[in-house]
Records
---
Amino acid sequence: MTDRYGQDVLSTDWRAPKRGRSRPVEATIDLVVEEVQTGWCGAVVSVEKAGGMHVVHLEDRRGKTKAFPLGTGFLLEGKPVELTAPTAAAKAALAEQRQASSRTASGSVAVANAPARVALGSRILVEGRHDAELVEKVWGEDLRVEGVVVEMLDGVDDLSAVIRDFHPEPGRRLGILVDHLVPGTKETRIVEEARRAARSEHVLIVGHPYVDVWQSVRPERLGWTQWPVIPRGTSWKHGILAELGWPHARQADVAHGWKRILSTVRTYADLEPELLGRVEELIDFVTAPT
């Protein structure tokens, strides 16, 4: 006989939410979850106690971080979870893992408690402040261990004179990183002239293809699939900031915009290989035994 009223609804967990009940999950580093109320999706970067309660910090794909109370109200792969503080065993395992595979931002093995080293006579020159800040953020720790100093050129228009004044020689090598070094550009012509004038095995000039070092940051770090094309006649940096929806009217806006872009860079993995290879080449060149 057909049951006109279906199954007994009281025999099931009829109070359970559609997505199911929350299950406890430890808030371990790099666990990606979504906060239900705000829709904020990010990876766990830290768990700490603040104001008598535990909070979890989630970093989204743009590098922005927000803090939320630890507990319920999160989704993991679409299922509700209750985030709990990592156990002592989990913390110990994570610490051991980090110790075993400690790396600098450039991907090199970190040298613990390395003594200060006197700077080498060799130097690496980059075009401007933004280039220098990016190199410092990713390779700074390695450069300090090697005793390599990075200095700013403030442009390459007088590159031949810069090389001549430096007096490169054995034990005093000069590596130079140039922006927008592609065929047919002003930068390529200047570099070719400088190479002919220097005629020295103690000078290495390399470059990346990007209009500005900003463009060497992977676009995914800013929420893009690729860097936008800025029309001719428009300041490239101002155009980029406008595309991002950030203030761009004043030079101070440009400086602040770069700080925000730089903050999205955590390791070498956030940079394009065309820049990575050139910087590594310069470091190898200036630190090579004489």
---
Amino acid sequence: MPALPRLIVITDWRIPRARLLTALERALEAGPEVAVQHRHPEAPARAFLEEARLLAALCHARGNPLFVNGRLDVALLVGAHLHLPARGLTVEEVRPHLPAGCQVSVAVHDAQEARLARGADLALVSPVYAPGSKPADTRPPLGPEGFQALAVSLPCPAFALGGVTPERAAGLPVAHGFAVISAVLEAEEPAAVARALLRASAHSSQSRQ
């Protein structure tokens, strides 16, 4: 099984395509521990596949991982890892259909979903803070304490998602890594923010040892 990423940058296709792809390309300059997750729930199936192919070309050329959100068929078509949203397909249902080395991430928001993460390679735990990309999200943030409680109960490494910045990442020592949207995609220097988050992840790793 390949090594897990330390930073996952999730797409926001409300951003103009050229600007989004440029921001992702810059973020990937931070190194192979940066992954991209293709998320676009409003896209028709063919458009979603077309976007996935663009991202696969971007990631594979640089040796960076790509995760596809919720679509097993698309993940297989573009040679990507798979992310499973909460209350959808389970890891046990999809794992027999995945090639060796394919990682599965799951979304976790509460203790019940944490118990369903069995068999996952990693979990995206959210919202730790109020998400910058989802101002209408009314779910109460977990905060550092809530994130830690879920992280230690998981059977797999936990990634903090939701309002995470390099400054806030430093206060999440149990996080294996971080998943972000606006913190990187809206940054003036996406590579600099990605590197800062990777440094915070490395510090967290040292703290857990």
---
Amino acid sequence: MTARTGLEARNLSVSYGTRMILKDLTLALPEQRFTAILGPNGCGKSTLLRSFARLIRPRAGEVLLDGENLTAMAATKAARRLGLLPQAPTAPEGITVEALVARGRAPWRGLFAGWSKADAAACLRAMTATGVAELAERPLAELSGGQRQRVWIALALAQETPHLLLDEPTTWLDLPHQVEVLALLQRLNREEGRSIVAVLHDLNLAARYADHLVLLSPQGLVAQGAPAQVLNPANMLAAFGMATLIERDPVAGTPMVIPL
């Protein structure tokens, strides 16, 4: 049996046409942790996540999952090990919460397989974990932004993968809904042991809810590790070109970045 080593990028280079986004990037994400990918616009955060999700073929280097090359992995096998919530997902008009979450079971069902008790149980667990079970029959369009995001996360959870990737899951949400979604992801990580990887913009919320940070700049990897190791004035200057003061969050005890 292959040893579980999690997601890795080895000498990864990714480009869009002639524009190089990531160049010779090497890093390994810890298993069963909540990792936040941070950095300024255009540094390759979403590109890195999409590479981990097999949506982009590397120009050079490789992406590995448990030691296996993801590019060469069969699509169904990858879909049973990696769940993805893309940025700004769209749903068919009029679809209900229950019907949308059910789509997460696709990797586990054969071409002509019927709906099974295992499928129903997985969807119920996912909706219960995200607090949307009571909304099962409601059309998605009727829900608030925070509720809709929890439904999309439930779809990804119904896929029952050990790794969950989320591209900017808090974008366009107000602060209470951002906190709601990040607290949910933190709970899924701590209670279920799922490896969570999310692209985030808010440094202070990332430090409060994630326990492993990856900080990128347009030049490449600046730092990775615990929030207290990554969020310091030197790294903020290297990544954002901005002078900062780092204080202790009086509520969470995590680093708090204050621009100067």
---
Amino acid sequence: MTKVKEIIDRLQVDFPEKLASQGDPVGIQIGSVDQSVTKIMTTLDVRPNVVAEAVKNGIDLIISHHPVMFHPADNLDFSDPQKRMYGQIIANGITVYSIHTNSDKAQNGSSDWQAEELGLTAIQPFCLDDDGIAIGRKGKLPETMTAKNFAYYVKEKMGIKMARLITADNSKQIETVGFICGDGGKFWRQAVADNLDAFITGDIYYHTGHDIVSSGLTVVDPGHYTEKIFKYKMYDLLKKWNTANKWGVTVEFSKVSTNPFQDLF
């Protein structure tokens, strides 16, 4: 019978926990490395609807991008929906393992997956973290386009309904692009320092947007949920490793949306 530890050991080859940014709570979130595994589910987030899906489908191991606990729980009062979810995970014998910034920084991880999705060429590391390892990527678009058309390009490539364009000039010519997966607004000045035409990241703050416009940089904010690419790519890897290592497990990805926002037009 395959144990959680065997799965984690293989994940650690490509996504070592030591790559994670300082203070990022990756790794085992809830559960045990000694637990037996028959069914694995990949997900971007671990939210109550994801846990309900996992319980319904008899999942033993959830592999998520976002950690379940960014902050320690001060109690396990089940009147709080988040803490009740922890109880449901434990009661149903589910182990949760999270691969966050170590996926962003790994070779052939989240950043490279999104570079591929965006169709970038001449891809290079972008924005070094404290350990000197890049947390993002930069590259060139297949062809030069205006800032406004670039925003539509990002929207199409990422398969999203809406993207926010931050620019002083809709007709600015865009060729070189950098990006940070998820919430990378604090890194926009690095895009300026690298003389990039544009930067892609989610969750841009209103006043940061003003500073970006003043700087002359163009930014497209596609939202945070574009990181859902993780659950599909991780699913593909686990399917391949399952066959190669004869784990004999079933692998699936979460079918529910954990995007808290609705696009209304």
